């Protein structure tokens, strides 16, 4: 409840009070007690105003928030991007659409979708005669989609348009946009749906569709592209009390030519035009649900390797939302050949073998270091692409080049390894996180150990004494030991097993996971340290800072400020009272009659 509502209730209460009776009641109280009561009332009202106050939503904004409730759980899980974690970018490594709704392609040798084409494939939707509106846009990291909810208040009801777009993960040429119109009002709604003009693109009409082609010449290569999109209906009427979904697809084909700009590209453009027409016809005959399911299942496979960082309220720290957004940016700019249906089977097997050569990936300290060049703002598409390029280059140079050859599948593993401070070695995984960084819960999962043996998962927890420890599990039979590997290796299963964190001098890994017990027993002989000790407990103030945003605990700073002021005022009042009583006693006039009477009474 916000401060405005409390104020209205307070005014209504004052109007019901008899002023004369109130004055008589107040006059019976001491002034000091009245002052304390007034201060307490002001403090409570201020607390309610600060904790409950917020931005007042417009009627259309309320409609948006009501529809957004379907994603409340995802917000808590930090699996969707809103506000500073919003990523207005969709892509599959071949094609993408940026924050400016511009089609992007991958140029020669680039690791990202850095080539702007000037083509805008998304439709424009306008509501005829609509008044004020409100909207919210968010990114679904796990599903690889961007959604926009826009609502209008019409006839006292919420008329909303939900737009969804994604670049298909397994069909590299496909871009999908869906427009869902929810009209619960008593009257029909007229929409104007159109497309932006494709400037500098050649338009060739073929039957009911138009194919757009263009060549982007360069001194080193020429990039040719052909695009075909569903026709926009223009005026579209949604009847009252109806929900309707319109679906638009674009098919994009491209080819790089190692030629100069003088080469005749007409035959290549004709070939690409025929291909997009054929693909467009085939995709239109498929069920939309089947296409959506293919895309979602592919993203599920990319997200099988997971990483979790507990939320922190401390200032200027890294949180899970930014990590998930960064991973989404990397995935959206990277091809996934192991998931693409058109990728040849023989090449797929070769890439799978190559990705298993993962020795020494990732060979550096954890990338959780913040701030750093790896964690940047991505308001502008250039910043987004630059950050993705730095990430991929970092992983390549830190032992993950072979793994990255498998595309987004290997990139997902390398990204998680880098965050976890983990690296693959001969038949085992080492986790080398610094104990000083374990003041927040950290978890990773889905990292494969061996070939077809099992996937390992580990979680750093903090006990009641503020000491960190591991909970380790596996999908198959794996074995683990802590720092120094002095204790006997434990057998892992699906049920998490507690493992104390040990630190060594000099520093070595704090966790080893292997495919066999014998391997860890042999590994113990190769770990040369002078001292092994239990991980120290963290300071309570540090944990409180992350959990509550203040080293003083969960209450806000202004609460402690007011409490200190009240304590100072109370002690000042008490000191003044004692001083007054002392002065009053010292100034009492001498009465010889009372003194002699008191003395005679004592003599008896």
Automatic annotation (TrEMBL):
Protein name, per record: Uncharacterized protein
PANTHER family from the UniProt entry: SIMILAR TO RIKEN CDNA 2510039O18, UNCHARACTERIZED PROTEIN KIAA2013
Keyword NADP part of the UniProt annotation: no
Gene label: Acey_s0078.g1201
Compartment(s) of residence: Membrane
Transmembrane segments: 34-54, 557-579
UniProt keyword Calcium present: no
A Pfam family the protein falls into: DUF2152
GO cellular component: membrane
Bilayer topology term: Single-pass type I membrane protein
InterPro entries referenced in this protein's UniProt entry, alphabetically: K2013-like
Main location group: membrane
Keywords: Glycoprotein, Membrane, Signal, Transmembrane, Transmembrane helix
